[in-house]
UniProtKB/TrEMBL annotation, chain A:
Signal peptide: none annotated. This is Long-chain fatty acid--CoA ligase. PROSITE patterns: AMP_BINDING. One of its GO terms (cellular component) is membrane. Gene3D superfamilies: N-terminal domain of ligase-like (3.40.50.12780). InterPro entries: AMP-binding_CS, AMP-dep_synth/lig_dom, ANL_N_sf. Residues 26-441 form the AMP-dependent synthetase/ligase domain.
From TrEMBL, chain B:
Transmembrane segments: none annotated. Keywords: ATP-binding, Nucleotide-binding, Transport. GO terms for molecular function: ATP binding; ATP hydrolysis activity. It comes from Sedimenticola selenatireducens. Residues 11-259 form the ABC transporter domain. This is ABC transporter ATP-binding protein. The keyword Manganese does not apply. Pfam families: ABC_tran, BCA_ABC_TP_C. GO terms for cellular component: plasma membrane. The keyword Methyltransferase does not apply.
TrEMBL record, chain D:
Its main location: membrane. Pfam families: BPD_transp_2. This is Branched-chain amino acid ABC transporter permease. The lineage of its organism: Bacteria, Pseudomonadati, Pseudomonadota, Gammaproteobacteria, Chromatiales. It comes from the Bacteria. It is a multi-pass membrane protein. It comes from Sedimenticola selenatireducens. The keyword Membrane applies. It is found in: Cell inner membrane. Keywords: Cell membrane, Membrane, Transmembrane, Transmembrane helix. InterPro entries: ABC_transp_permease, LivM-like. GO terms for cellular component: plasma membrane.
Amino acid sequence: MSLPPNQPGGQNSEVLDTFPKLLLNHAKVRGDKIAMREKDLGIWQSWTWSEVADEVRALACGLAALGFKSGDKLAIIGDNRPRLYWAMAAAQCLGGVPVPLYQDSVAEEMIYVLDNADVRFAIVEDQEQVDKLLEVKEKAPKIEHILFDDPRGLRHYDYPFLSSIDKAQEQGRQYDEAHPGFFDQSALSGSGSDVGIMLYTSGTTGNPKGVVLTNDNVIITARNGIIREGLTENEEVLAYLPMAWVGDNLFSYAQSYVAGFTINCPESGATVLTDLREIGPTYYFAPPRVYENMLTQVMIRMEDASKIKQKMFHYFMDHAKSTGTRILDGKPVSLMDRLIYKLGNFFVYGPLRDVLGLGRIKLAYTAGEAIGPEIFDFYRSLGINIKQLYGQTEGMVFICVQPDGEVYADTVGTPAIDVEIKIDDNGEVLYRSPGVFHSYYKNPESTAKTKTDDGWVFTGDAGFFAENGHLKIIDRAKDVGKLNNGTLFAPKYIENKLKFFSFIKEVVAFGNERDYASVFINIDLEAVGNWAERRNLAYSGYTDLANQDTVYDMIQECVEQVNLDLSKDPLLSNSQIKRFLVLHKELDPDDGELTRTRKVRRNFIAERYGPLMGALYSDVAVQHVETQVKFEDGRTGVLTADVKVRNAKTFTPVKAAS
Amino acid sequence: MNERNFGEVILDLKGISLSFGAMRVLNNISFNVRQGEIRSIIGPNGAGKSSMLNVINGVYHPQEGEITFRGEVRKEMKVHEAAGFGIARTFQNIALFKGMSTLDNIMTGRNLKMKSSMLAQAIYWGKAQKEEIEHRKKVEEIIDFLEIQAIRKTPVGRLPYGMQKRVELGRALAAEPEILLLDEPMAGMNVEEKEDMSRFVLDINDEFGTTIVLIEHDMGVVMDISDRVVVLDYGRQLADGTPDVVRSNQDVIDAYLGVSH
Amino acid sequence: MRVERDVIYIIFASLLLMVIIPWSAGMLSEDIFFEWPFFFEVAIGGLLAGVMYSLVALGFVLIFKASGVFNFAQGAMVLFSALTLVGLNEMGLPMWLSIIATLIVMLILAIAIERVVLRSLVNQEHIILFMATIGIAYFLDGFGQTIWGSEVKLLDLGFSQNPDFYFGGLILINDFDLIAAGIAGVLVIALALFFQYTRIGRALRAVADDHQAALSVGIPLKHIWVIVWAVAGIVALVAGIMWGSKLGVQFSLALIALKALPVLILGGFTSVPGAIIGGLIIGAGEKLAEVFIAPMIGGGIEDWFAYMLALAFLVFRPQGLFGEKIIERV
Amino acid sequence: MFYREAGEFKASYQKDQAILPIRQDRWFIWAIIAIAFLVIPAVSSDYWLGTIMLPFLILALAALGLNVLTGYAGQLSLGTGGFMATGAFAAYKLATMFPGMHILFVLLFSGAITAGVGILFGIPSLRIKGFYLAVATLASQFFLIWMFNKFGWFTNYSASGVITAPQMTAIGDIMVTGAHATVTAKYLFALSIVTLLALITKNLVRSNIGREWMAVRDMDIAAEIIGIKMLPTKLKAFAYSSFLCGIAGALWAFVHTGSVEPLAFDVNRSFQILFMIIIGGLGSIMGAFLGAAFIVLLPIFLSNAPHWFGLNIAVDLISHIEAMVFGALIIFFLIVEPHGLARLWQITKEKLRLWPFPY
């Protein structure tokens, strides 16, 4: 595929350096090719590029008619819906800035962002979101207009500032006729250096920051990614991750606009898996936990298969472990092994890939968290080319990507195209790339703290280059601490090692400025529940199950295995886990224990569960604790439990033979 | 449900009495239903509620009394004619077509609207297919409305009770009825399901302006969503009026104190 | 038991027609010979033959009443029991002994059927069970003839087969038919008593109403099934003996099941008296039609006439004369 | 295991409502059809074509007809034989009355006539239900057979009461009936007709009328309340069912046996067909064919089995043992899978689609 040229900041409209230009170009070049699909009313409704262009045109003019000006911010809230994606383009056509918000955040959380971003217009999915905004509106008076996609239940809302996207588009079409040339003029007037989009990072601490990205940031990075992986206009992508997240913006919007491939929106949250199978994407992104859940599902379902089937399954999976990845990496493999692999491909790998909906995958990414090696290998051995990438919003995702053929579970690969990386003396990773963000919105000091004048960005991650030239991330730089005996303590590293066990869902590790490392553990209700049923242990719910001794025994084994690994690592052998406990409730974003992207907020948790912390660093065996919890319906209540605390066996450090 | 104003009376029942042999099921019942309202018939089990519905949609023929429908007195009609008059209903103990999928059940609800000849259907491609598709669209809208996309192609036999109730509601809606009769739509449901169901009832009344006559044996949810309520007790009519009026009616209170929940 | 008024009407009307049609037929066409004594002779002959039909129908009713199973194998059971009886008898057992032995065989058969078929098909749709009984029918036909051979055997109970004159020598009736009728009558009365006064009998009637009730009577369903099938077996044996000694024991015995079906739908699947009265109406009607109507349309109508007759009744009472009325509950 | 469904999404209702929405299924069916039309005639002997494939096809067609009535519309019928006979004799009368008439029209009209008769005997079904109806349908069975036996007019007064099919050509001068027709021609002719009718039937059962039938079958009162008229719906089922049975009868008389007497369609035939749909699976097109195959092949297998084991048993004894085993097998089948081979087939398919998962 020949990619159109791009010089940053080019003024003439031939240079495809803005989304409107890209869109109009696609409408010209591949007008009849499907740009978007949405599972709606039972079938995959489709829109070609030229249809999308028209829809966007109408919507943009509609917004203009409502008074949307260049530079205005357009809040976008809802599940992945075609029209919400069009809204992004529409805003950009008017020189405005789309600001997607996390659809599951509660009204209060929205206030800050809406206010901070000076949002005047909002386009939302449905009644749920409208209600939130109406709630917010008093406190964030800057909002002037709200457009909604799905009119269900909104029939009797009459507010002057509330109308449906349809209506807006209708007005837009009239406006378009009334003002010929307006659209094309404003759509083509933008340039690469203009602000393209604002994404709010769900900061682990403090208020979210609005990351301002220029068109060049987004488009050039997107294109570099496409070039490096050789993506074409024929890719199929399933858009199911929050639109407010930079990854979705890159994979389901930017790269589609650059390469011209197709975006598919699932019918509803409940049907994502079936929709995934129906579409069978060729290019796929998922955070590790998704792959984890998938694998857990596979194992659970296979448990119930007939003995013969299980035997066959395990035989071939074992073979795949030894052969699959080698074949995928193009390493030499004996003919016999190839044949067995082919056989396995017919009986297991092929059907499995297909049932999981990964049957047509050319390229799958995972990022955001470290992924368990055996999870990673499982998919690769099936012949699915899944790769880790390392990135962040400030750099429009791409910093490092694992090159084909050089995929190691414990590294994040080599720098992406046009990306420079350096490690400063206290181990923090810095990078410089075309994707480097413009600034934090209305927050110069944070900008200054994160980004040097010559364009280097502090990732806030500690890491180093392994001898094979691949970057290896151990932890958040600020989290890397020291035990009282002065040796290095990398909580995330420990947490991840534990989370690689399918039974363990979340882990919070402590040890900084303490005598030894210890952990809170969240068991995986589904996996452990299933495990319990097969041993017919009765349990009433999470809290009950978590507190069972047999479960503790099982978790203890996991902990001790991790200790064994740690003991082998000269750097970290001292941070073996001495004490652990299984938390009586699941960590939950609604309680502020996790970020919206499900990162643990360690300090917050440490405070929240003070008594338990105390218990970890004393020698009590059982600790009573009361916790405030928020239920789905917003009510709050108190959860009380007696949590057991256990000691884990630790191992004497073995000097790595070097 | 604050101040809602309704159209004229579309269904008026005067002095309805119904007996099976010696057993008198309904005794001189009179009430009317107005365009676009949610009209509830409540009463303890065996109060004759279901019989009342069966009278309205012509399954039973009352010995006495007259039924005025859309201004004209309705003569004794055959069971299958009710649908033609724009009266659809659901059933107390689910009466779905067990062998068919959710989709087909709801499609069947549109049988009266499908016109293509048997021959056309035999050939299928062309006329019949076009018709199938345009009705499929309507049905999909209902599926979407009732949020049952995930079970679209599941045989209804395999569905849990609550879901079956929803599918049955869908089948009734498919006929785009003017009056929708709901026979204990919330029977045997947990609180959450009841809330869902009443939301759907309200939305239907709201989105399609469908007049709804629903019967329930417990006052609970019904009182909140109904505009007017008739109370029956062993075939007698105890009270008729807005929920508040009915609630404060002495006979009703007595009758209900008699009933355990 | 309460008999609905219209049932009485229907029966009365049919009787009337049975008289009028032959009579008018006699008037109209000269190739039909009509005379009152002859008419009664035919009618009585028919009634007696009807009793024989009822005998077979009875078996169906018992099983359908108690287990809702439409037992198509009843005919095969008739044949099988007869074959067994004669077979044992030919092996030299005295008649009374072979009868007892056959009874035991039928009991074993009942148990086997319950164990093998019914138990594994419980709660299946009726049509499935119906097909299963057809399977049983095939099996029994094959099994019986495999063991006892398929050539026609004579079964002689020593009753006279020759007709005598009754009513002052006006009417000629076959003694055997009278005896058969007598035995059938006794059997019916016995069954009626059994149903009315024994605990099992009451249980059976309970089952007919609903299975839960049956359990409350305290007899496990499977026992009840065994019992009805055994009873049906006994009835089959009696029918087998009667028919066997009338037509000789051979495969065609199995086909009299087809004769019993119209009786069944006319009387109602669930009613013992229905089976009797149905039998009488069918028997008489068939004979009369054979004699007074058939000649006009070329004869040989016995294959279907009974069915048409029953069909005609059904149009008035879809559940048969004495069957329970089906009320649509919504 | 063979299914690869990722990426098989439907962007239109046409595709979503296709008879075979899954690609692999389409391939499979096309393969079957190709084999049936090209391979089988090429490789199999006249014996196979004539005494196994032909009856199989024709009886499958009759089973299809009965399945529409019993499996889809829920009206249990034991009159199939009678309707087949009607078809056969109607075809005979038509062919002899109008010698010029093309066989396709002969079949069409004989089917139509049978449909008329079916409607006639279907009328009681409005009031009579379940086994009462089943027995009532026996009336038609016996009456029709008696009628064809009794009145010479139907057999053109042939002394034996046997009708013999005249020679007829399908396309050009290719004989498909009578002594000079090659078995292959007969087979292909029957095959084409059965395939076509199977397709039409599929179309009907997936359209509104099909849903109305199933509604009546599953819950007649509810069906009536949503506006389905009982009599027309049931009569349509009777009509179409008898239409198929009629054509099957005509094919049996003309293409298969060539000459036939009413007895060929006696009550045993009716039961045979009923077996086919029960064993094959009620309410399934596929089932009619699977059932027919089973019921046609089983006796052949049973009667040959002894020879394979080198036993020689007296013929009549064999026939008894056959009946025995047959009955036993029927029961066995009903116990293992009461919903018939079609259900087994379906389950296997589901398993393959979920492979390697059990559910």
